[in-house]
Specification:
This protein has seven helices and six strands. 45% of the residues lie in helices and 16% in strands. The longest helix is centred in the N-terminal third of the chain and has 39 residues. The termini are far apart. A hairpin with a 2-residue loop joins strand 4 and strand 5. A six-stranded mixed beta sheet has the order 2-1-3-6-5-4, with helices on both faces.
């Protein structure tokens, strides 16, 4: 046993620089692969849900990916949740403001107070003109920018409706309008799974 320990110690002493270089190279390759995977992935739809009943969105994310028929491993659907602290307003919540200001959010589902602030800033697309083949009268519109989700059985099934009234709007900065359309069709129950 002693000779084995001594032999290993001698190998380590003799080849220590080479062993360290191989280990460093392996770490660098691992970091590079992780970086490339992160950089090449693209969110095909990003939804922000403000004040949901639950923060568990994995089932909704998975079902949206299935509905959108998203099979490319480099594409993903991102569902973010954010809570407004009791007594605060949307303008004083930096995390939510940062997500909206970064132009990375496609759809926002939130209480009326949040939508009123964003509508005032002109951040929403008009839903009427966005979907020519979607029977938009199947869902309740509050105005040209906002859909009422309170009767949505899908949103209730995922327990994502807030205690307040929940409304959906599409942000003007969205570049994923086909995916947004599919998401709206899914949660309003307009069409079955493909």
């Amino acid at each position: 046993m002693n000779s084995l320990k001594e032999g290993l110690w001698l190998l380590w002493r003799k080849y220590q620089p080479s062993i360290r270089m191989v280990l460093l190279l392996l770490v660098l390759v691992f970091v590079a692969v992780q970086f490339i995977n992160t950089v090449t992935k693209k969110a095909v739809l990003t939804v922000l849900i403000v004040n949901p009943k639950t923060i568990e969105t994995e089932a909704l994310r998975r079902d949206v990916e299935i509905y959108l028929d998203e099979k490319d491993p480099k594409h993903y659907v991102q569902i973010n949740t954010a809570m407004l602290p009791e007594g605060s307003d949307f303008q004083t919540t930096p995390a939510i403001n940062a997500m909206v200001a970064s132009n990375s959010v496609d759809v926002i589902i939130a209480p009326e107070a949040v939508h009123e602030i964003l509508e005032g800033e002109g951040l929403y697309l008009q839903i009427d003109g966005l979907f020519s083949d979607l029977p938009i009268d199947a869902v309740k519109r509050i105005n040209p920018h906002r859909l009422d989700l309170n009767g949505s059985t899908m949103m209730n099934a995922y327990q994502l409706l807030t205690e307040d009234n929940a409304y959906l709007s599409v942000l003007r900065s969205s570049e994923n309008l086909e995916e947004v359309k599919g998401f709206i069709q899914l949660i309003t129950g307009y069409s079955p799974y493909k």
